Protein backbone atom coordinates (compact mmCIF):
# COMPACT_ATOMS: atom_id res chain seq x y z
CA UNK A 1 0.00 0.00 0.00
CA UNK A 2 2.58 2.57 1.11
CA UNK A 3 5.18 3.53 -1.41
CA UNK A 4 8.67 4.89 -1.10
CA UNK A 5 9.35 7.42 1.67
CA UNK A 6 11.25 10.66 1.12
CA UNK A 7 12.83 12.66 3.96
CA UNK A 8 12.85 16.44 3.54
CA UNK A 9 14.71 18.28 6.29
CA UNK A 10 13.22 21.33 7.94
CA UNK A 11 15.23 24.54 8.06
CA UNK A 12 16.35 25.00 11.67
CA UNK A 13 16.80 28.74 11.58
CA UNK A 14 16.84 30.40 14.99
CA UNK A 15 13.71 32.39 15.70
CA UNK A 16 11.67 30.94 12.83
CA UNK A 17 10.47 27.61 14.21
CA UNK A 18 8.17 27.06 17.17
CA UNK A 19 9.41 23.92 18.87
CA UNK A 20 6.91 24.29 21.72
CA UNK A 21 4.05 24.10 19.17
CA UNK A 22 4.92 20.56 18.09
CA UNK A 23 2.85 17.90 19.92
CA UNK A 24 4.69 15.28 21.97
CA UNK A 25 3.81 12.50 19.51
CA UNK A 26 5.68 14.33 16.74
CA UNK A 27 8.67 15.46 18.80
CA UNK A 28 9.16 11.94 20.15
CA UNK A 29 9.08 10.53 16.62
CA UNK A 30 11.49 13.25 15.53
CA UNK A 31 9.68 13.87 12.24
CA UNK A 32 6.31 14.46 10.59
CA UNK A 33 5.16 11.78 8.15
CA UNK A 34 2.74 12.80 5.41
CA UNK A 35 1.00 10.39 3.03
CA UNK A 36 0.70 11.91 -0.43
CA UNK A 37 0.02 10.80 -3.98
CA UNK A 38 2.96 12.31 -5.85
CA UNK A 39 1.21 12.35 -9.19
CA UNK A 40 -0.71 15.62 -9.15
CA UNK A 41 1.22 18.59 -10.52
CA UNK A 42 1.46 21.42 -9.66
CA UNK A 43 0.41 20.48 -6.12
CA UNK A 44 2.52 17.43 -5.37
CA UNK A 45 4.53 15.33 -7.83
CA UNK A 46 7.98 13.96 -8.65
CA UNK A 47 10.65 16.23 -10.08
CA UNK A 48 12.32 15.28 -13.34
CA UNK A 49 14.94 13.27 -11.45
CA UNK A 50 12.17 10.83 -10.48
CA UNK A 51 13.17 10.84 -6.84
CA UNK A 52 12.47 14.30 -5.40
CA UNK A 53 8.97 15.35 -4.28
CA UNK A 54 8.14 18.82 -5.55
CA UNK A 55 5.19 21.15 -6.05
CA UNK A 56 3.50 24.06 -4.33
CA UNK A 57 1.89 21.80 -1.71
CA UNK A 58 5.26 20.13 -1.02
CA UNK A 59 6.70 23.60 -0.34
CA UNK A 60 3.81 24.14 2.07
CA UNK A 61 4.64 20.92 3.95
CA UNK A 62 8.29 21.94 4.17
CA UNK A 63 7.08 25.22 5.63
CA UNK A 64 5.11 23.38 8.30
CA UNK A 65 8.24 21.42 9.14
CA UNK A 66 10.18 24.68 9.41
CA UNK A 67 7.59 26.16 11.76
CA UNK A 68 7.58 23.07 14.01
CA UNK A 69 11.36 22.54 13.72
CA UNK A 70 10.94 18.97 12.50
CA UNK A 71 11.96 17.22 9.27
CA UNK A 72 9.12 15.94 7.14
CA UNK A 73 8.87 12.54 5.51
CA UNK A 74 6.61 12.01 2.52
CA UNK A 75 5.25 8.55 1.75
CA UNK A 76 4.18 8.20 -1.85
CA UNK A 77 0.85 6.34 -1.75
CA UNK A 78 -1.69 5.85 -4.52
CA UNK A 79 -4.76 7.96 -3.85
CA UNK A 80 -7.04 4.93 -3.65
CA UNK A 81 -5.00 3.58 -0.71
CA UNK A 82 -4.17 6.79 1.07
CA UNK A 83 -6.92 6.73 3.72
CA UNK A 84 -6.19 3.14 4.76
CA UNK A 85 -2.54 4.17 5.14
CA UNK A 86 -3.55 6.97 7.53
CA UNK A 87 -6.03 4.80 9.42
CA UNK A 88 -3.40 2.14 10.07
CA UNK A 89 -0.88 4.67 11.40
CA UNK A 90 1.58 4.61 8.53
CA UNK A 91 1.62 8.40 8.48
CA UNK A 92 0.64 11.32 10.69
CA UNK A 93 -1.50 13.05 8.08
CA UNK A 94 -2.67 13.06 4.47
CA UNK A 95 -1.83 15.85 2.04
CA UNK A 96 -3.00 14.79 -1.40
CA UNK A 97 -5.24 17.58 -2.71
CA UNK A 98 -8.08 16.04 -0.69
CA UNK A 99 -11.27 18.09 -0.55
CA UNK A 100 -13.56 18.81 2.36
CA UNK A 101 -16.74 16.76 2.54
CA UNK A 102 -19.31 15.98 5.27
CA UNK A 103 -18.14 12.36 5.33
CA UNK A 104 -14.51 13.31 5.87
CA UNK A 105 -15.35 15.93 8.49
CA UNK A 106 -17.29 13.32 10.44
CA UNK A 107 -14.37 10.91 10.54
CA UNK A 108 -11.26 13.12 10.46
CA UNK A 109 -9.76 16.45 11.49
CA UNK A 110 -9.51 18.66 8.42
CA UNK A 111 -6.97 21.51 8.25
CA UNK A 112 -7.90 23.85 5.38
CA UNK A 113 -5.08 25.33 3.32
CA UNK A 114 -6.67 26.62 0.09
CA UNK A 115 -9.81 26.44 -2.06
CA UNK A 116 -10.00 25.79 -5.80
CA UNK A 117 -12.79 25.53 -8.35
CA UNK A 118 -13.28 22.53 -10.67
CA UNK A 119 -13.83 22.37 -14.40
CA UNK A 120 -13.07 20.78 -17.73
CA UNK A 121 -9.92 20.78 -19.86
CA UNK A 122 -10.84 20.44 -23.55
CA UNK A 123 -9.38 20.91 -27.02
CA UNK A 124 -8.45 24.47 -27.95
CA UNK A 125 -11.50 26.30 -29.21
CA UNK A 126 -13.79 23.86 -27.35
CA UNK A 127 -15.27 22.44 -30.58
CA UNK A 128 -17.73 20.22 -28.68
CA UNK A 129 -18.89 23.14 -26.47
CA UNK A 130 -18.21 21.29 -23.22
CA UNK A 131 -18.76 23.75 -20.37
CA UNK A 132 -20.60 21.81 -17.68
CA UNK A 133 -20.57 18.21 -16.49
CA UNK A 134 -24.00 17.66 -18.03
CA UNK A 135 -22.50 18.63 -21.40
CA UNK A 136 -20.47 15.42 -21.17
CA UNK A 137 -23.51 13.30 -22.05
CA UNK A 138 -22.35 10.56 -24.43
CA UNK A 139 -18.71 11.64 -24.07
CA UNK A 140 -15.70 9.97 -22.46
CA UNK A 141 -14.02 11.89 -19.65
CA UNK A 142 -10.85 11.35 -17.62
CA UNK A 143 -10.73 12.06 -13.88
CA UNK A 144 -8.64 11.24 -10.81
CA UNK A 145 -9.65 7.94 -9.22
CA UNK A 146 -11.39 8.35 -5.86
CA UNK A 147 -11.56 12.15 -6.11
CA UNK A 148 -14.44 14.49 -5.35
CA UNK A 149 -14.66 15.21 -9.08
CA UNK A 150 -15.24 11.54 -9.80
CA UNK A 151 -18.18 11.64 -7.38
CA UNK A 152 -19.47 14.78 -9.07
CA UNK A 153 -19.35 13.10 -12.47
CA UNK A 154 -21.20 10.08 -11.10
CA UNK A 155 -23.86 12.44 -9.72
CA UNK A 156 -24.06 14.14 -13.11
CA UNK A 157 -24.70 10.75 -14.71
CA UNK A 158 -27.62 10.24 -12.34
CA UNK A 159 -28.99 13.61 -13.41
CA UNK A 160 -28.52 12.74 -17.08
CA UNK A 161 -30.50 9.54 -16.53
CA UNK A 162 -33.38 11.56 -15.07
CA UNK A 163 -33.26 13.79 -18.14
CA UNK A 164 -33.34 10.77 -20.43
CA UNK A 165 -29.91 11.56 -21.88
CA UNK A 166 -27.02 9.14 -22.51
CA UNK A 167 -24.53 8.92 -19.63
CA UNK A 168 -20.91 9.92 -19.98
CA UNK A 169 -18.22 7.25 -19.81
CA UNK A 170 -16.10 8.00 -16.75
CA UNK A 171 -12.48 6.87 -17.05
CA UNK A 172 -10.89 7.16 -13.59
CA UNK A 173 -7.10 7.02 -13.37
CA UNK A 174 -4.72 6.80 -10.37
CA UNK A 175 -3.00 10.08 -11.27
CA UNK A 176 -3.79 13.38 -13.01
CA UNK A 177 -0.74 12.97 -15.22
CA UNK A 178 -2.21 9.78 -16.67
CA UNK A 179 -5.60 11.46 -17.07
CA UNK A 180 -3.99 14.27 -19.06
CA UNK A 181 -2.08 11.80 -21.21
CA UNK A 182 -5.40 10.19 -22.16
CA UNK A 183 -6.70 13.61 -23.21
CA UNK A 184 -3.51 14.41 -25.10
CA UNK A 185 -3.75 11.09 -26.97
CA UNK A 186 -7.38 11.80 -27.91
CA UNK A 187 -8.76 8.85 -25.95
CA UNK A 188 -11.13 11.07 -23.95
CA UNK A 189 -13.12 14.16 -24.85
CA UNK A 190 -12.29 16.08 -21.67
CA UNK A 191 -10.35 15.93 -18.44
CA UNK A 192 -12.05 17.03 -15.24
CA UNK A 193 -10.07 18.39 -12.29
CA UNK A 194 -9.46 21.41 -10.10
CA UNK A 195 -8.48 24.68 -11.71
CA UNK A 196 -4.89 24.59 -10.42
CA UNK A 197 -4.30 21.19 -12.01
CA UNK A 198 -6.03 22.09 -15.27
CA UNK A 199 -4.13 25.36 -15.55
CA UNK A 200 -0.86 23.52 -15.02
CA UNK A 201 -1.50 21.09 -17.89
CA UNK A 202 -2.95 23.81 -20.11
CA UNK A 203 0.25 25.86 -19.90
CA UNK A 204 2.27 22.78 -20.85
CA UNK A 205 0.16 21.73 -23.83
CA UNK A 206 1.65 24.12 -26.43
CA UNK A 207 -1.74 25.67 -26.97
CA UNK A 208 -3.58 22.37 -27.66
CA UNK A 209 -6.05 22.67 -24.75
CA UNK A 210 -8.07 25.20 -22.79
CA UNK A 211 -10.37 25.25 -19.77
CA UNK A 212 -13.84 24.93 -21.25
CA UNK A 213 -15.60 25.94 -18.08
CA UNK A 214 -15.42 25.81 -14.29
CA UNK A 215 -18.97 24.90 -13.31
CA UNK A 216 -18.13 23.73 -9.79
CA UNK A 217 -17.65 26.52 -7.22
CA UNK A 218 -14.41 26.45 -5.21
CA UNK A 219 -14.00 23.52 -2.85
CA UNK A 220 -11.66 23.52 0.12
CA UNK A 221 -8.56 21.32 0.18
CA UNK A 222 -6.88 20.36 3.42
CA UNK A 223 -4.52 18.23 5.44
CA UNK A 224 -6.32 15.28 7.02
CA UNK A 225 -5.51 13.96 10.50
CA UNK A 226 -7.27 11.24 12.49
CA UNK A 227 -9.84 12.38 15.08
CA UNK A 228 -7.85 11.38 18.20
CA UNK A 229 -4.91 13.57 17.14
CA UNK A 230 -6.54 16.97 17.44
CA UNK A 231 -3.31 18.39 18.89
CA UNK A 232 -1.48 17.54 15.66
CA UNK A 233 -4.20 19.18 13.56
CA UNK A 234 -4.07 22.28 15.79
CA UNK A 235 -0.28 22.50 15.41
CA UNK A 236 -0.60 22.33 11.61
CA UNK A 237 -3.29 25.03 11.65
CA UNK A 238 -1.12 27.33 13.79
CA UNK A 239 1.87 26.77 11.51
CA UNK A 240 -0.17 27.61 8.41
CA UNK A 241 -1.62 30.72 10.07
CA UNK A 242 1.88 31.92 10.92
CA UNK A 243 3.03 31.21 7.35
CA UNK A 244 0.13 33.26 6.02
CA UNK A 245 0.87 36.14 8.39
CA UNK A 246 4.53 36.18 7.38
CA UNK A 247 3.67 36.06 3.66
CA UNK A 248 5.30 32.68 3.10
CA UNK A 249 2.16 31.00 1.74
CA UNK A 250 1.50 33.81 -0.73
CA UNK A 251 5.13 33.68 -1.86
CA UNK A 252 4.79 29.95 -2.54
CA UNK A 253 1.63 30.50 -4.61
CA UNK A 254 3.34 33.27 -6.56
CA UNK A 255 6.46 31.15 -7.13
CA UNK A 256 4.39 28.40 -8.77
CA UNK A 257 2.14 30.80 -10.69
CA UNK A 258 -1.07 29.44 -9.16
CA UNK A 259 -2.17 32.39 -7.01
CA UNK A 260 -4.94 33.35 -9.45
CA UNK A 261 -6.45 29.87 -9.33
CA UNK A 262 -6.88 29.50 -5.58
CA UNK A 263 -7.84 31.17 -2.32
CA UNK A 264 -5.71 30.74 0.79
CA UNK A 265 -7.53 29.58 3.95
CA UNK A 266 -6.69 30.80 7.47
CA UNK A 267 -8.30 30.72 10.91
CA UNK A 268 -9.14 34.42 10.44
CA UNK A 269 -10.57 33.83 6.95
CA UNK A 270 -11.66 30.18 6.76
CA UNK A 271 -12.73 28.62 3.48
CA UNK A 272 -16.25 27.16 3.20
Give structural notes:
Helix 2 crosses helix 8 and helix 2 packs antiparallel against helix 9. The strands form three sheets. Strands 8, 9, 10, 11, 12 and 13 form a six-stranded mixed sheet that branches. Strands 1-6-2-7 form a four-stranded mixed sheet. It contains nine helices and 13 strands. The chain is globular, with a radius of gyration of 19 Å. The protein is α/β, with parallel strands linked by helices. Helix content is 33%, strand content 29%.
What is the fold's blueprint, element by element?
Blueprint: E1 2-8, H1 24-29, E2 32-36, E3 39-40, E4 44-46, E5 53-54, H2 56-68, E6 72-77, H3 82-87, E7 93-94, H4 102-107, E8 108-123, E9 140-144, H5 148-162, E10 169-173, H6 176-184, E11 190-194, H7 195-203, E12 209-226, H8 230-246, H9 248-256, E13 263-264
Helix pairs in contact: 2-8, 2-9
Low-confidence stretches: 11-19
Number of strands: 13
Structural class label:
alpha/beta
H/E series = EHEEEEHEHEHEEHEHEHEHHE
- Largest sheet entry: 6 strands, mixed
Average pLDDT level: 91
Question: What fraction, in percent, of the residue positions are helical?
Answer: 25-40%
What is the approximate shape?
Answer: globular
Cα-atom radius of gyration = 19 Å
Q: Treating each run of at least 4 consecutive H or I residues as one helix, how many helices?
A: 9
What is the CA–CA distance across the termini?
32 Å
User: Strand-residue fraction?
Assistant: 25-35%
